[in-house]
Amino acid sequence: MDLREKLLRHRKDNRLIIAGLGALLLVFTAVFFYLQRGRDLPSALVANRVLLFVLWYANVVLILTVLFVLLRNLFKLVIERRHRILGSTFKLKLVATYVGLSLIPVLLLFAIATELLQGSIDRWFNTPMAPVLERGNAVAQALYDRIERDNRRDARRTLREIRGIDVGRAEERPRLTRRMQELLGEMELDLLAVYEGTDFVHAVLNPQSGLSDLPEPGRDFLGEAVATGTAARLLDAPEAPGRLVLAAVTSPSTAGGGAGDKRPPILVVAGSLLDPGLAESTDGLIRDAQSYRQLEVQKDDLRASHLLIFLMVTLLILLASSWVGLYLARRVTVPIQALAEGTRRISGGDLSHRVDVEADDDLGVLVESFNRMTQELESNKAQLERSNRELVEAQQLAAWNEAARRIAHEIRNPLTPIRLAAERMLRKKQQGDPGLGQAIEDGVDIIVREVVTLEGMVDEFSRYARMPRPRPDHVDLSRLVGDALNLYRNLKPGVEVEADVDPSAASAWLDGEQIRRALINLLDNAVEATEPPGRVTVAARRENGHLEIRVADTGRGLPPGSREKLFLPYYSTKGRGTGLGLAIVHRIVTEHQGTIRVEDNVPKGTVFTMELP
Amino acid sequence: MRTALTLLALLGILLFVSQARAEEARVSEIRISLDGDRVLAAFTLRDAFDRRLARRLESGLPTSILYRLELHRDRKRWYDDKLQKNTLEAIALYDAVARAYTINFRLDDKLIESRTVRDRQAAEEAMTQIGPLPVFSVAGLPRRPRLLIKVQAELGTRNLLSFIPIAIETDWKESPKFRPPGP
User: Fold this and answer.
1) B157, A52: Cβ pair inside 8 Å?
2) Before B132, cis peptide (omega within 30)?
3) What average pLDDT does this structure show over B146-171?
4) ipTM value for the complex
5) Taking CB atoms and an 8 Å cut-off, how many pairs form between chains A and B?
6) Is residue A563 within a helix (H) or strand (E), and if so which, with residue range?
7) Would you give the DSSP letter of residue A249?
């Protein structure tokens, strides 16, 4: 994947991160909204099992998401570090800092909040609230029990009092009514009713109570009384404020209905209407105690739901911080990586490369400067190459002109003696000169010699054209220089030749034969240019990892303006020879990936310096 | 990496093993009877009301026991073939003012019975002594397979480590095997 694709993917990642942060914001809002609403909801709903399961699974999903995001990015960072990708260490540090900075306080907060919550719940349930509520409940229940008991007693008395009255007979109804009215007043009841089995017979109401009609006690109430001998109920009184406490009893002798008694048992219902204020208070006491019991039962669920909400918020914060850390790290490291990649490409010669990354901060300025610099480099290089090309073309043209002139000159030199010899032989023949034979011998001798000279020239040109590529090997440079110098020792009286090979350069990796030939060409020129008394020195040493070989003489030096053409083929300052010596030296050095330069020697003479890798 | 894998495995366990065996409660005495194509089941849930469930019932919170019923075709030397499944939920609600327990029974999420009793003992019995109820129909079953009914009860939840909710369930109990009447 090249950098451009990485950058495109990075842009997509940015969009993903922004979408993720938006989603997180929504989740936060939803949680906040839910918590606000939860305050108004009954606890039974807040802490029910569905909510607990939903919260737990939401937490599990969040835990997995956080782990996935962290592990995935950790894995990527480790891979990047292994591949030594620029910026990976910085990214790792930035992410670790962000996650660490948020993790520590968030976990501390979670621990403290959890502890506080647990303590608060425990303290709340440890207050004397429970006994107070339970006592209140017991008082309220005792009141109802007492009224029920009294009503049951009054119902039994009524049953006894009406035993002599046949309640089924219409003639007995006035007597029954009168007796029931008397008993209602005596026992201060609000309702007294008589049933045969579950069938209504008669009822009297206290006109002061506000009851306008007999409330329907319910078939199950009557059925329970018939079946078990007694029953009690609390009813909301119709058309009257307060609560109606009913108690029913059946005649013991007829309870359940004996096999021989075909008539259903007599059932008496006695009712008292509880004052509305008192009824409300007692109901409130009972309901409050019940609510407290419900809270107590739900204590664990409440604790669990709050813990899960805390955990969820903690995880959301962790997720957000790690995501933000990664996002910021990428914003910094991606331009840096792009710049590093750009630098690598530029140093590799690809000046057309541009860093394409969106950054609108200081890094953006850096990227823009980098791109401007590479653009200028590219245009300068193009201009330089154009100039070089023109220069090389001009030099080649000049070289060819010079070569043509030299070749013409060199060929003309042997041609003149050949022509003169031929003319002389012809003249002798025409004159009938007796020295014709000798003239022919001399003429042929001259012609053959000059032809040999021409052949030698042709051979040298061919060798230059067919020079093989260097084959490097380990070479004892001291010995190679010594052998070359031996050829020139005592060649010219008064001209000393000497070697100065540094031990660091004693051994070298190069084509020994070619370097020897280059040395001989340079020495040949140096010795010839040096008049006695003079000195020619060959020095070799290592300099900055390069092998440097210098050939210095104390000769006449180079004529002005000759240096530029010195290494061109067929150029010579000597006025004779092929002009290939220094061209061959230059070619050998260039084939060895080295350079050669020529300078003036101090105080006089010339120095040729070969730098070989 | 190994730590992360261990953590993931732990999470997986917590995620998927979110149910616990009820320590003592058990379904017993499944009795099967047939009424035409209908299969009637009666069973008893023993030792269901521990302190937790009894306190919940007394508090007036809706207290539910969910029975899962499955009709299987018995297969020798192989797993039984599940043919049908159903749920029966007994939900009790205590009114402390009226001093009455109302118990609603929902079969396959449809209310089939509502009962009011006056004391806790009766409420517990009503919630745990079930049936006989027509829970399955064998109409349309090919030939006369040998059948059985499996029952499991779920008695609410408890919290592992104070915050991981887990359902409390009994073991599955199998009824005696039976064959529906032929056509």
Assistant:
1) yes
2) yes
3) 86
4) 0.78
5) 73
6) none
7) E
